[in-house]
Amino acid sequence: RMVVFGGYAYSGYYDLNDVWALSLAGTPGWTQLTPSGTPPSVREGQSAIYDPVRDRMVVFGGYSGYGGYSGYPSDSDLNDVWALSLAGAPAWTQVITSGTPPSVRYGPSAIYDPRRDRMVVFGGYSSSGFFGDVWGLSLAGTPAWTLAAPSGAPPDARCASSAIYDPLRDRMVVFGGLAASVLPGFTCLDDVCALSLAGAPAWTQLAPTGTPPSGREASSAIYDPLRDRMVVFGGDQVYGSGLNDVWVLGLVRPGNSGVEPQFAFSSLRPVTPNPFQANTSVSFTLAQPGHVQLGVYDVSGRLVRRLTDGERCAGTETVVWNGRAESGARAEAGVYFVRLAGPGLLDTRRAILLP
Q1: Contact, 230 vs 173, CB < 8 A?
Q2: Which pLDDT tens digit goes with each residue over 165-205?
Q3: Of 11-20, 123-132, 257-266, which has the strongest mean pLDDT?
Q4: Strand, helix or coil at 243?
Q5: pLDDT at residue 9, rounded to an integer
Q6: Is omega for the bond preceding 101 within 30 degrees of 0, making it cis?
Q7: CB-based contacts of 247: which residues, under 8 Å, 6+ apart?
Q8: Residues with Cβ within 8 Å of residue 179, at least 6 apart in sequence
Q9: Measured between alpha carbons, how far is 231 from 219 in angstroms, rounded to an integer?
């Protein structure tokens, strides 16, 4: 399913904090969710990721300037973090973080970085101007903010850009957004930048061939693993109209066979047997060789057992988990998550260990 939170309602010029789910199996259908707990304040321009280890949606920042039909409170940019648990009955929890957080902001872009189990946030806007900074929020244990200092020529400061995680090249790819123009006012961008995440982070300006989309802000984007490409939909133009066109950015350059990875299909299969008492098998298929991290995590996101962490060839491999932790002691009975991060693949399966 697709889960949607908050946003701006044009029908009445007010911000929202409701949650909706669109089922994707069979005939798609909308359902409004009613999470327990205290919800985040109404907002628009927030960023959100799916945290597969803890089966939750993580929301950061946004703008809460419009409170509803009854009136318009003072403009308010935000830098809070919220989690919506998706396992069982959904519930809201405010995430208390350590470290110095990013300043309040509207329209940051964010991705989930599976190899480092963190949320990566870029840019945004507040009354003080546009941001071009990069932040990481670790998700294991007590979440902690860290300001990154990437090398390379940074992209223009901006907000409302779209971004994806490129698993084959371990990088964040950013397209477009809204930035300050030379004259007083704003301009929409159509550039593409990549932030490498392995080792010391570094910015690179990409120069795609072909005719680019028109400059835009607030477009949505996904990574298409079957075709190794970024798919961009819609957006808005300053002093212009809304857009509903679709563009694709191929991430493998034509004619570079053997230089850039060629992707077909990778998968992580359900663990079997499940539930289990002694052993369970985890099988995965890689369409191309690469680094694979396969681990077992508890419901709090803590690593319980590292099953695989290294280079693997293309093909199918099966790994057995014997229900024991890194220490060798038997893990407690309960629900666990088997997570695989590899070339072109990020997936999680649930495993139930019986007493």
Answers
A1: yes
A2: 998 889 999 999 999 875 567 899 999 999 999 889 999 99
A3: 123-132
A4: strand
A5: 87
A6: no
A7: 213, 231, 232, 233
A8: 130, 156, 157, 158, 159, 186, 187, 188, 189
A9: 10
Predicted TM-score of the model (pTM): 0.76
Q: Which residue has the higher pLDDT, 12 or 254?
A: 12
How far apart CA 23 and CA 5 sit, in angstroms, is 15
CA distance 354 to 352: 6
Q: Is the pLDDT of residue 12 over 80?
A: no
Q: How far apart are CA 204 and CA 152, in angstroms?
A: 6
Cα separation, 353 vs 338, whole angstroms: 12
Beta bridge partners of 337: 297, 350
Structure tokens belonging to residue 22: 């669109």
Answer for the pair 61, 49: CB distance below 8 angstroms, yes or no. no
Tokens of 327: 């220490």
347 CB contacts (<8 Å, ≥6 apart)? Answer: 52, 267, 268, 339, 340
Alpha helices in 1-85 (DSSP H): none
